[in-house]
Structures are given as structure tokens and as C-alpha cells.
Amino acid sequence: MRKPSDCCWVEPRSSGWDWFDAVWPGLANFVYSQAPAPFGMIPSETLTRLLKTLPEKPGVYHHLDKEGKILYIGKAKNLKKRVSSYFSKSHETARIGLMVKKIADIKTIVTETEYEALLLENTLIKQHQPRYNVSLKDDKTYPWIVIKKEPFPRIFYTRKKINDGSEYFGPYASVRSMKAVLELIRQIHPLRTCTLALKEESIAAGRFQKCLEYHLGNCLGPCEGLQSRAEYEHEIALARALIGGRLGQVKKRLHERMLAEAEALRFEEAQRLKQRIEWLERYQAKSTVVSNTLDELDVFSALIDAQFGYINYLKVIDGAVVHSHTTEYRRKLDESAEELLGLSIAEIRGLFRSQSKEVLVSHALELPLEGVWIHQPLRGEKKALIELSLKNARSFRVEKLKNIQIVDPERHVRRIMEQMKVDLRLTEEPRHIECFDNSNTQGSDPVSACVVFRDGKPSKSEYRHFNVRDIEGPDDFASMEQAVFRRYDRLIKEGAALPQLVVVDGGKGQLSAALKSFDALGIRGKVALLGIAKRLEELYFPNDPIPLYLDKRSETLRVIQQMRDEAHRFGLTHHRKRRSKTSLGTTLEGIEGVGIKTIERLLAHFKSAKKAEAASLAELEEVLGKSKAQLVHAYFHGDVDAT
Q1: Is 611 a domain residue?
Q2: Of 347, 324, 310, 314, which Cα lies nearest the Cα of 173?
Q3: Where does a domain end: 104, 133, 162?
Q4: Do strands 501-505 and 528-533 pair parallel, antiparallel, or not at all (unpaired)?
Q5: Residues 427, 568 within the same domain
Q6: Res. 360 pLDDT band, cuts 50 70 90
Q7: How confident is the model at residue 637 (pLDDT cuts 50, 70, 90)?
Q8: What average pLDDT does this structure show over 31-48?
Q9: Which of 66-80, 132-146, 506-520, 613-627 shows the lowest mean pLDDT across its residues?
Q10: What letter would DSSP give residue 113?
Q11: 381 located within any domain
Q12: The total number of structural domains that make up the chain
């Protein structure tokens, strides 16, 4: 593989770089990917003095440009060490390097603890939305369940959060699941749905009348004073617990009330409460129960690709998953999965007002949440919860990508190409890829196949096969070396464009053989080369003894596997045709009176020995004439012996 030291750092011109970074973010990474800067960014004299005076305490820092605009907001255990690190080390991506070049001033806010720094960072990012911080997708399109702040509160769903003191629960990624909760509340708790302003003086003055909902049993008539505020608030408290997923708590209270009503000989009311418990049990049976031993905890998992990160959140109460929500982040500074988790946990817990004391995470990280135990489970029920969370994150990503593929196919292609570039550590997107495979039968009739993919899709008109020459016996390595040489020797002589990536089917041996041809042609380092071994789908790179293992669900691996399988199919098909023709030609040469021209006519017409043997005398006469046809037909049917 190419090492960073083999390349040079290209210093971009500041005059036009901002425009390119805005219009084509990938260009910055392309230039920077040739190699990281060999030295840290040197701060100005003003910044140098400022760095020396920074406090060695926890807090939040702001990077500002020359116009005073906030570029980035971050938190730190030690402000001096963290901020200084931006100027004292090389950066892995272009975006970080570009941001550091723009820093003209730094402001800090000291906090007492890391936890306070975390909360403050979260608040400031939401307030200022800096360009280089990850951007959280707006949740305003998701529905919420609201308990309205008013006398005798209503419970309904909305897509707008208003700062009016009302309680909001959500957001719900699924409208169906949100409506199921609302329907359960209406079945169990007789709450009003009207929009009347039920003030005490208005009720006392008799300004309202019972509506149809009262007569249907869906409301107990607080508008006419038939239900006290205390009784109504009790129903609201149970509904609040139900929305929060505390079904066991609601069921227990309903059961206690049912027994009390039965003891007081109010059997009709006891029966109504029993019916509510049955509704609750039916709903509970549909919940995803993951454990009977777990109490209350939060589960967070992170999944990333070249452009975005996906954080899934599961809320588990009484061993059942009561809520699932996936959030998409744009990775502006190529944040890792751990960094995204660290940035999102406080945000999402605040969004859902979670008070869980235990948090499970898919990646180990240190997060100063006061009174909360954050850990990465390695086995058992809690590990299974992490897998379930990751499954939800993958499902969300797949659904999103399918929509992109349908609505914007070109964007879908760009995304796959960018992902392949990152996964395979390439210097450019592999828009043009070629794959080679060999095929022979115990060394006989050896052939090689070359298939071509453009933008991740087969370009069948460009497929080529090679009849291997001057090689005796089953020598895959020599066959691969010859096919690769002949292919690119011709492209170079014709002045045609070379591919960005060449894949060979096989491990280190086939890769080394292809590399010999690259060296002979002088294209080593100009065209990326890798080999794929079938046993564990290892990817081998030149001069790198350690293979690369991609996730089995990886789109990059899927494209490479598709190429490998297509090259195998194409090569095997050609090999079978050649073997069939060779077999037929050798057989016919033994018939007295049948020459080369007769054999060629048979091969051209019937394509294979099997079809020629199955042909009738009449069919053979149409191709060869009467006398020759009789000789061939008699031979195949045992009437004439081969000499």
C-alpha cells in the first residue's frame, strides 16, 4: 500500500479554498488524503500567547475566525492541553486542517466539572450551530404526544413543540406506534377531548353541557363538575406513566382500584377497571420484551459511513423496549463512532427527559454524566440489547439509502464511491474498476476473464476474455500475470484510460503475479490493486501482509464480491465453450474423410459437441451436405469407427 511518506502535502491556496470546501467538500479530503501534513499547524503570535495563558481546567472552548464567527465549539477536561493539541499535531482529515487554518481567536468558558462542560457544550452547539460541529437533523417533522398545560389537561399529538409549559413526550419515529399509545390512553383513561376552557368559575356558573363523549363513556363530565380536578389529575398521572412505558406501574394501580371498588360492592365500576387492565395486557403482549430481569436503562449504539453517523436510542423499562429512535448526524469533521456517541447521549437523553441511571453503549467511552453508569456490555442480555439497537440503526440507514437510490440515483452512486474510497484507503473514487479471474480444467484450455464495473455497475460491453498462451499445466499465477499484462499493455498502447482500481480473484500469490505485470508496465502506484481471497473474504494489498476485513454487510465488500462472482461466471462460461469446441474438434479429427473446414462449419453452426451429436441426419445435411453428413452421423451413432 502507499504510505503517507511516499506522497507530498499539497498546501491549498486560501483565496479559493473556502468556495471549493462549500461547493465540493470531497475535494478537500481528496487533496489531503495524499498524505497528512507532516507538521502541526503553526499558530499566529496572538494565538501562541493565548495558548500559553489558557487554564488547565475543565470547560468549553470556541474557535472563531477573523470575522468573529464561531467555527467550532468543544469541551475539554483540560482546556490548555485540548486546545493546544489542534496546533501541535498532524490532522487525519482535510476538514480539521482547514478549520485550524481559519482560527483567528479562541474563547473559553471554565466550568467546575466535566459534567457541567458537557451540558454547556450541548446548549451552546444548539444555540449557535457552528459550521464544523456535527449537525443534528431537525426533529420538528416527528410527532409528539403532549399533555397540555391547562385546567383538566388534554392529551393529543402534535408536530410542533411550543414553549408554553406543556409536557411533550417523544419524538416518535413511527406515527403508528404513537397512535397506538394514544388509543390505549383513550381506552383506559376517560379524558376529555374538547377544547373548552374549563375554568372553575365557568364550571360553577354552569356554562357548559355534557357532550356525546360523556354519554359514550369516554369522558366523565368535568365540564359540569361531575369529575373533580383531583380525580382527573389522578387519571393524568396514570396516563403520564403509561406514555413513559411504565405499564407495570399503571397495571398495579388499576388492579388496586378494581379490588377497592369490588370490596365497596361497586361491581360495574370494578368491571370497567378489569376491562382496562385487559386492554393494557393486550398492548403489553405486543411490546418487545427483552428480559424479565432488567429494570430501567438506556441503550445507545453508533453506526457510521463516509458522510453520516446514525445513533439509535432504545428505552427499556421493566425489561421491555418502550421506545426506539434513530438520529442522523452529518460528520463534518469525520467524527468517529465514539465521538458521535459522546456528543449525542446528553442531547438525546435531554430530548426524551430520561432519568435512567444505567446507559449501555456500543463503543467504550468516558462520559461525565453525574450519577449515571455508562458501560459497554460484552455478553449476555445487555449485549443482546446493543445488537438490537445496532439492528435498528442499520434498518434506518438502509431505508434512507433505498429512498436516495430511487429519488436521486446519482447521489446514491456518489455515496457508494465515496464509501469505497474510504474503506479501501484509495486516493480517488473507484469509478472504473476491473476484476480478473482464471479458469481451467486440470490445466487444459486455460482462460482468464476481465470484467469492468463503472460507478459500481457492470459494463458488459467492455468485458474481455483471454486464451492463455504458452503456459503448461495449471499455473494460476502465470495465467494471472499474462492476462493483466496483455490487458493494460493494450490500453496503454491505445491511449485508453486506466481504471482507478484493479481486483484479482485470489490471495497473495495472484496479487503478486498481477503486481509483476504492473511493474513491467510501469503503472505500479498509478492504479490501485487488491486481491480478494474467497475463504474469509480477506482483502490483500501490495506490500501489506495483514489483510483487511470489511463488515459482511459492507456495501464496499458487496460490490467487490459482485465483481468477483461476475468475473468467475464470465470466465467459466468462456472456458466451457472453449473446452466443448476443443473436445468436438479433437473427436471429429479422427473421422476419415472429415477435414478442418468441415469441423469449423460444424463448430460455427452447432457451437458444442453435445448439440452436434444430438443433431439429426437432415440437420447435418443442411450444414455439411449429404456425404459428409452421413459420415458424421454414422460416427456419432456407432456405425463407423474412428481411425
Answers
A1: yes
A2: 324
A3: 133
A4: parallel
A5: yes
A6: very high
A7: low
A8: 53
A9: 132-146
A10: S
A11: yes
A12: 5
Residue 281 in domain: no
- In angstroms, the CA 463 to CA 531 distance is 19
Instruction: Kindly tell me if the per-residue pLDDT of 574 is higher than 60.
Output: yes
Q: Find, among 299, 292, 185, 197, the residue nearest to 241 by Cα.
A: 185
Closest CA to 505 of 551, 567, 444: 567
* DSSP conformational letter for 485: H
C-alpha cell at 475: 499455473
Whether residues 442 and 561 fall in one domain? yes
Cα(492)–Cα(197) distance, rounded to whole angstroms?
A: 83
Contact at 8 Å (CB) between 555 and 397?
A: no
1, pLDDT greater than 50: no
CA distance to 447, 502, 531, 613, per residue, from 434 (Å):
16, 5, 12, 38
Where residue 294 falls (left for φ over 0; alpha for ψ -120 to 50; beta otherwise) is beta
Of the three residues 79, 107, 133, the one that is the final residue of a domain is 133
Position 541 in a domain = yes
* Residue span of the structural domain in which 219 resides: 144-245
| Half-sphere exposure at residue 205, Cβ-oriented, CA atoms within 13 angstroms | 6
H-type helices in 378-448, by residue range?
Answer: 380-407, 409-423
User: Residue 229 carries which side chain, given as an amino acid letter?
Assistant: R
In this prediction, residue 173 carries a pLDDT of 67
How far apart (Å, rounded) are the C-alpha atoms in residues 353 and 361? Answer: 18
